[in-house]
Write the structure tokens for this entry.
Amino acid sequence: MTDPRIEGYARGLFEIARAEGTLDEVEDELFRFARSFESSDALRSALTDEMIPATKRQAIIEDLLGGKATATTTQLVSMVVGFGRGRDLPAIVDRLVARASNAKQQEVAEVRCAVALTADQQARLAAAITQATGKQVNLKVVVDPSVLGGIVATVGDTVIDGSVRTRIDQLKSRL
Amino acid sequence: MNAIIRFIGSAGGGHDITQTPSTLWPERYEIIFGSFASVLIFALLFKFAGPVIKKGMAGRTAKIQAELDAGEAARAAAETEAAQIRTAKGDIGAERTRILAEADAQAITIREDGRARVAAEIADLEARSVVDIAAAHSRVGDELRAEIARLSIAAVDHVVTGSLDDATQQELIENFISRVGASA
């Protein structure tokens, strides 16, 4: 059950990005920022600490995203953190991505790999997942060193795990 | 006394009776009177002193006999006691033999019991040792397997991480794409 406030923020961000005409780009940048937010304790602490003034937290976002992401993405993240909803940022972004995918008649496919995928690899992987699941997918790539090697793809409730980490874990279990 | 002497003197024919005719022999009458007096004295002694002496001798004989009897009785008692002692000695020997035999039997029983107990304890210890050894063997085996697994896991992490160069990463990605595409 999605929190109405999270859903409301996601709808608002979605509409702003669509109105700006940068939905795909913003969606992708927000997704990557949300994953970084989840994996970094320091970033999460800095952006969710109520003792730090909102202006200071927004300044941190400017430092992180300024010049690296679109202005819309920077402003949207700054707005969410400024409203004290930094803790809900990943959930908001996930709802935003799901909404964007639905708008394009697509399913979000979160792909985790140890090294970045080339555009060609992403296209072929999206095609392969579409072929395997029968759904058009909105591929979201997350570079996650803990995967070690290979890829873990999650489409809805389906997980296709070809990571070295999982194989090592299985080997450890057998040992 | 003087009258007697004068009588005797008159009977002697009127010579001095205080003088003897022979230096060796007394007067005849002295011999006669002496003999008579001796016989008389012996007769009196036999009559009056004889029974007393006889009684004394009989008493002495009885006393000696009694002493002899007492000695005989003492000897018999001593012989009886000696026999009893010899019997007792024989009994002591038999008792000693019996006690020694009983002690030997008890010693044999104790030794056999001890051997049986020691044998049982040894068997029990052996059984426990076998169980302990088996447990230790199993434990050591488990520990060894756990250690090997731990080292293997560490080695797997190290080897796999070290072997994941860029080419391998790309190969893994391509294999994944191919596998997912082929699974349709």
Summary: Chain A touches chain B at residues 113-115, 117, 121, 124-125, 127-129, 131-132, 148-151, 153, 160, 162, 164, 168, 171-172, 175 (CB under 8 Å).
